[in-house]
Amino acid sequence: MSLIDRKSLEIFLNRLKQFKQSSLTKNEANTRRMVIDPLVEVLGWSFYSGEIDLEYTITIGTSRPTVDYAFIIEGKPTFFLEAKPYDSELKDTESNQCISYGKVSDVRWVALTNGDILKLFDTSRGTNEDQCLISTIKLEKLPEGLDELSLLHRNSILSGEIENVVNRIAQTKTAINSLRRNQNQLKEKFKESILSITGDIFKEKVESTSTQLVKHAIDILEGQKEYIQIPPTPSTTEYQETRRSQLTAYPQGVVLVSPSKPEGVEFLRKYNAWGFIRVLRKPRYFALYVGRPESKLLYFAEIDRITDPIGAREEISTIQDQDMDTFEKGKQVIWLKPNTLRKFTDPIPLIDKRRGPRGPRYTTIEKIVNAKKFSDL
Description:
Number of domains: 3
Shape: extended
Number of helices: 11
Strand content: 15-25%
Structural class: alpha+beta
Largest sheet: 8 strands, mixed
Helix content: 25-40%
């Protein structure tokens, strides 16, 4: 599924159609205001976030040219976009200039658009359009080409998925080029293999068949399309405040209690989940003890599911790289049921701060309801 909202895309395409029919298409400022700015917002970027620097200045020797749009993450540009008038042709010289802007600024991803065509480049692959071009997208034909356009979505840039997809595209192109260079050799191998089974009686037919097999193999690879699968940026899970006595209405079941530093609450609310942990029993509920300065059992939720032990980071695509610091092979993620997260208005205090929990433990709802201090669990 594309990262781009279909309704937003439909609105953009209607605006593009109206602009194309207007008398304003020769002017770059009009193109930017009426087509490219809305496209930037369709890609998940906001002009009010402080992440878009218009007319970003770079230094090339003694000159100081500007980039029309620089997309800034953590104080550094991560993507450049250059604009041209709608009626203008996108020339190789303009593409090469964009690529040079990216290379001198250590910005890997750059794009050039006139609001009609958008070209996406990877500046790490060379110095000109032929070497760096990833995709050419005809905007009015969207949603055809939508997956390629999604590479420039804010979530794709933030997650690094654009790099994964582009690397796979490059590997596919390398394989295709290798097949093309070695067509005759591959055709002979096909022919030898088939004749070893059928004998020479079908020699003429096998010759033709081998040629078709090579062509078909190349066509299959060329038809492969990369789709990016990135979860939307997680929204913060809301919680309800509750007293522990209200848990008496819940069915009985094992509660897994996990200790956490205060910053762990952000992970809990961001993903409505807890990770990474080894689960030795089959809990029905989850509770979070928050360490100093809180030093209290504060949160409670119902468990939806628990993953199998995880073998590699890549198996958990829904958790962003910056939140994987505590990942260890063999640990698990606990996913919580939606809308079940509770924060106690009467949390259970530690009391003896020398005996703070160092790992997960298991308890019951009855003990949580009746506990006066954490050690009662």
